[in-house]
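Researcher: Next entry in the queue.
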Amino acid sequence: MLDSAELSWRFVAPELAKEHRVYAIDLPKHGGSRPWQQPITQKLCEQLISELLDYLGLQRIAIVGTSMGAGVSIGYALNNPGTVTRLVLAAPGGIGARRRAQLGTWLVINIPFVLTTAAGYFARKPGAVRRSLSAALTAGADTPGFDTFLRLATAEASAKYRHRERVLDDWQLGAYGPCRMRLDFLPRMGDLDVPTLWLVGQNDELVGAGEMQAAAAASGGRLETIPDAGHMATLDQPQYFAALVGEFLHDP
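Model: Structure for this entry, 252 residues:
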């Protein structure tokens, strides 16, 4: 929730850029994309990717996404056949009909002012950002580069508060319904006609192993588990992550 391309891909992008041209995208209300007033929806994100490719003059691309970005990537690949040559999806959102404590989570995130208040709390309490980031990483504060991660996450918290954003993304909030997820690509996985690598951290508590296995099987993709990694596998195990992606991009 306090993320940016500079944070998530800080170590992975330079490794991939040794052999590929790499573009790291700040989706709306992330990193350098502000100010942004329009709500972030799946349709909007897909439209922005298409417009960016037109601007860059790119007709075919490989996409590597993690978490929300991976969920956005699934929809883009499904709705733009022939554009995506390879797809890497690390712990994606947007797969599975239900989450743990579905109704309770939906109720909490829909309480007025809770998420804007939370954004202000993180902005005013750097220690809270540190505790949250430390808890999200498998090695905690001992993770290499932690101080830089903390600086970037703290800057993101301040930007959310300054621009009166909620602490969670519109995309995530729109995906949640009271009884089931409103955004679930799992039934469409058979239509994903592109070589796909699915990645999940061994200790990921946000994306279920069952959903990942079902999605990989339905899409005919390959599933790899990254050891000693949680949901933020690009920070927990960047070299391992980059090696898997590099191998996949070169695999004929």
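Model: Strands lie at 61-66, 84-90, 196-201, 222-226.
Researcher: Noted, moving on.
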